[in-house]
Amino acid sequence: MGRKVTLATCSLNQWALDFDGNLERILRSIEVARTRGAKYRLGPELEICGYGCADHFYESDTLLHSFQVLRKLLESPVTRDIICDVGMPVMHHNVRYNCRVLFLNGKILLIRPKMLMANKGNYREIRWFSPWNQLRVEEYFLPRMIQEVTGQDTVPFGDCVLSTKDTCIGTEICHELWSPRSPHIRMGLDGVEIFTNSSASHHELRKADNRVDLVKSATTKSGGVYLYANQKGCDGDRVYYDGCAMVAVNGDIVAQGAQSSSKLQSHRIYWRNLTPVLFSLGPACWLWDYLRRSGQAGFLLPLSGGVDSSSTACIVHSMCVLLCQAVEDGSDQVLGDIRRVVGDESYCPQHAKELCGRIFTTFYMASKNSSEDTCNRAKDLANQIGSTHMNINIDMAVKGILGIFSAATGRWPQFRANGGSQRENLALQNVQARVRMVLAYLFAQLSLWASGRPGGLLVLGSANVDESLTGYFTKYDCSSADINPIGGISKTDLKSFLLYCVEQFQLTALKGILAAPPTAELEPLTDGQVSQTDEVDMGMTYSELSVIGRLRKISKCGPFSMFCKLIHTWKDSLSATQVAQKVKHFFRMYSMNRHKMTTVTPSYHAESYSPDDNRFDLRPFLYNTRWTWQFRCIDNQVEICWRNNVTLLLEQ
């Protein structure tokens, strides 16, 4: 006879150390599961305290408050008659573990510690937790506060499964699914029919399809049901957890939640390459979580009229579109959050453009080196998205700073175009860039005050991942901000995103922005036209940088191994000597400017070759920039290539 079971999984917008909010969201998800007839409810990894607690996991308070929340859950009538599977840290024999706690009707059934830890890229679980590697199940002595509720002194702790009268349930935790020795393999052979996975898996470009393939494959061979739960939203760090809760049966996905929703929208994302669409969802939801949880009143963006700052502006516009859609769909929570942000309890947004004007300020900071074209592009885009836009001129401030320097030294630096040296030329560019940062923060703090409105604004940055790789930005310039939604995204992908915005949001001003060459506009104009371009300054194209960036991080290439790969990849367009020049130039730029990554603005993690120095890409920031040994190896290989080519020509 066939047996029917109703199972529930979810994606929760948890927040590190927000024990009240996390408890409320867990209870709400259990209540929804019960009303829909579920007998088992699965939640995300470490959902009680939040996954992103980082070094707060060391604190006894985090363990204490997690057990206090667990007690509330055990006592709640909402948790009756349904097996609840929740995540929290647990200390066993003075060792800290990342655990699942399964309970039913006020009794704890088992505690299952994580066995295979996530410890690469953005993850540092070994720093806070130990993997469970015992072959036995032990007895765990419950804290007195839990004993008072459950009447139990001890419960099973270890690598165990839950058997009922009619089925068997086995648990995996996040990274265990990605391991070549995943526990579900052994559990399936031992007769487990229902597999669960509680995750805190962040969004990264081209990652979601891998996740789905793994979930499907877990039950393709031996059959069964696989439940996947994930965290959703920004929990206080650079990553965005993209939800995508799902259920697979015998290798087929039978139910799936939305990706990048964060309670803003109900778009269903299917598993194909939708990179531009995801930029309008993931970073937008990350910004909204950050804004509503920060207590600030909106965003401020220096809008230059280029691809990067325009991409940031379009992400904010997309956020407003999603918010208005959520309000139209009847979300009281989103409406309440919007009202708190704008400081008006009666406000109700009518459309995205109008909301954008309330929470988004853009301004163009012109200098004598700025062109009318970029000024007009910035103004046109601001008009189309509805931001509150201002034009200001920074020449007075730049002149004042240079005047202070001149008074102290008796010298007045000149641009290279006016006969100055390279040092003078670079210093004059940096002064302009840093003045813009100072003004950005001044306007962020006081622009709402000047208009009689409460609150301050978060400053948004707009440096892309490729520029971070080479350090093609001024340290402490207007790329220095509170947060940066595009810091993990390549220039190539940003252009694809803007093309999508032209069609999706009818932002026709973007056409001119896309057609213009990228430029910093920090050097004097020539006959009123821009003479400085980014790719010339960097010495390579953005597409070349993307290739180099992936080789450096993903393929783990140093200078020599990168050269050896690129002489084959670029053999149709560049000679071995030219490839050597590109590789050497990149590593000189990269090593000279790596120190900038120690102070770079926290950005949305999106790209697998991100140079984020915070924890994803850990490198020294003081290098021998001559790379003498490595470059000598490249030169020797170039010589070998040249000799081989000469020999081949002679033979012909």
TrEMBL record:
GO CC annotations on file: cytoplasm
EC category: ligase
UniProt domain CN hydrolase: residue ranges: 5-271
GO molecular function, one term: ATP binding
Catalytic activity: deamido-NAD(+) + L-glutamine + ATP + H2O = L-glutamate + AMP + diphosphate + NAD(+) + H(+)
Pathway: Cofactor biosynthesis; NAD(+) biosynthesis; NAD(+) from deamido-NAD(+) (L-Gln route): step 1/1
EC number: 6.3.5.1
SUPFAM superfamilies hit by this protein: Adenine nucleotide alpha hydrolases-like, Carbon-nitrogen hydrolase
Entries under Gene3D superfamilies matching the protein: Carbon-nitrogen hydrolase (3.60.110.10), HUPs (3.40.50.620)
A GO biological-process term: NAD+ biosynthetic process
Keyword line: ATP-binding, Ligase, NAD, Nucleotide-binding
Protein family membership: In the C-terminal section; belongs to the NAD synthetase family.
Subunit structure: Homohexamer.
NCBIfam families per record: nadE
Listed name of the protein: Glutamine-dependent NAD(+) synthetase
Organism of derivation: Scophthalmus maximus (Turbot)
Gene name for this UniProt entry: nadsyn1
